[in-house]
């Protein structure tokens, strides 16, 4: 079975040990679990999850960019892992053909229009789906946890996963990218409120009790169960 240290040695990214350390503390995952990694990119989180769920677990790695997707597939093959299932798709609140806009950062691609870091002239035409659609299409019969980091589209994804939440009630680890949106937009599309309406309790929130007049922009991590 692959180990997290093998993945760290392979990617050799300076920030990866810290990311894995936070996951070790906060993501509830055990052997045999089925996990969905939303915004899988090159597969660093998917490989971490694979090391935790073991040979009897499954990891569905969903990535939107056709230019990045081959790396995700190849990195799984390098470690000879058979329980990571790469899916080329952008996660949204509906099923359609859309655009994935470029960014100066290779990890900053987003389906949202008019974000500050967007390179509007650079985009890929992509297939967008709800998570509910992906679950039905791939006949996923168990979901224990969802990791989501999709560059601002998290609030859209939540609107498209009501069925799976009702059926599986998975543990959620969500990066709420509020640094690219306005305060008014954030409070209108507040992910915390959406999750609470779906029956979740927020067990970790990086903003916490921040008041509207103390609005803190950043990457707000929400963990719910």
Give an account of the 3D structure.
- It is a single chain.
- The chain is α/β, with parallel strands linked by helices and 225 residues long.
- It has a single domain (4-91, 131-207, 219-223), classed as 3-Layer(aba) Sandwich (Rossmann fold), CATH 3.40.50.150.
- 32% of the residues lie in helices and 25% in strands.
- It has nine helices and ten strands.
- A seven-stranded mixed beta sheet has the order 3-2-1-7-8-10-9, with helices on both faces.
- The longest helix is centred in the first third of the chain and has 11 residues, at 16-26.
- The mean pLDDT is 86.
Write the layout of secondary structure elements.
Elements: H1 4-11, H2 16-26, E1 34-38, H3 44-53, E2 58-63, H4 69-78, E3 84-88, E4 90-91, E5 96-102, E6 119-129, H5 131-137, E7 145-148, H6 154-159, H7 162-168, E8 171-177, H8 183-188, H9 191-197, E9 202-205, E10 219-224
Parallel strand pairs: 1-2, 1-7, 2-3, 4-6, 7-8
Antiparallel strand pairs: 5-6, 8-10, 9-10
Secondary structural class: alpha/beta
How many domains would you count in the coordinates? 1
What is the number of beta strands? 10
Name the CATH superfamily classification.
Answer: Vaccinia Virus protein VP39
What is the ordering of alpha helices and beta strands? HHEHEHEEEEHEHHEHHEE
Distance between the termini: 28 Å
Structure annotation, total helices: 9
**Which strand order spans the largest sheet, edge to edge or round the barrel?**
3-2-1-7-8-10-9
CATH topology: Rossmann fold
Largest sheet: 7 strands, mixed
Can you tell me the overall shape? globular
Helicity range: 25-40%
Mean pLDDT comes to 86
Q: What fraction strand?
A: 25-35%
Instruction: Give the quaternary arrangement of the chains.
Output: single chain
Q: Which residue ranges are poorly predicted, with pLDDT under 50 across at least 5 consecutive positions?
A: none
Radius of gyration equals 17 Å
CATH class: Alpha Beta
């Amino acid at each position: 079975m692959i180990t997290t240290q093998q993945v760290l040695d392979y990617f050799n990214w300076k920030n990866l040990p810290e990311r894995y350390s936070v996951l070790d503390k906060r993501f509830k995952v055990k052997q045999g679990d089925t996990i969905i990694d939303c915004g899988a990119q090159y597969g660093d989180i998917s490989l971490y999850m694979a090391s935790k769920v073991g040979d009897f677990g499954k990891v569905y790695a969903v990535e939107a960019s056709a230019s990045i997707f081959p790396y995700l597939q190849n990195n799984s093959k390098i470690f000879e892992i058979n329980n990571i299932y790469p899916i080329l798709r952008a996660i949204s609140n509906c099923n359609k053909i859309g655009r994935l806009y470029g960014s100066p950062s290779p990890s900053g691609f987003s389906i949202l229009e008019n974000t500050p870091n967007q390179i509007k002239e650079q985009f890929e035409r992509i297939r967008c789906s709800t998570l509910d659609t992906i679950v039905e299409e791939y006949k996923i019969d168990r979901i224990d946890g969802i990791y989501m980091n999709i560059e601002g589209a998290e609030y859209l994804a939540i609107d498209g996963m009501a069925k799976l939440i009702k059926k599986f009630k998975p543990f959620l680890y969500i990066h709420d990218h509020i640094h690219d949106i306005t305060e008014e937009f954030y409070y209108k599309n507040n992910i915390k409120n959406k999750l609470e309406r779906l029956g979740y309790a927020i067990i970790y929130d990086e903003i916490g009790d921040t008041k509207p007049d103390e609005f803190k922009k950043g990457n707000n991590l929400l963990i719910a169960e």
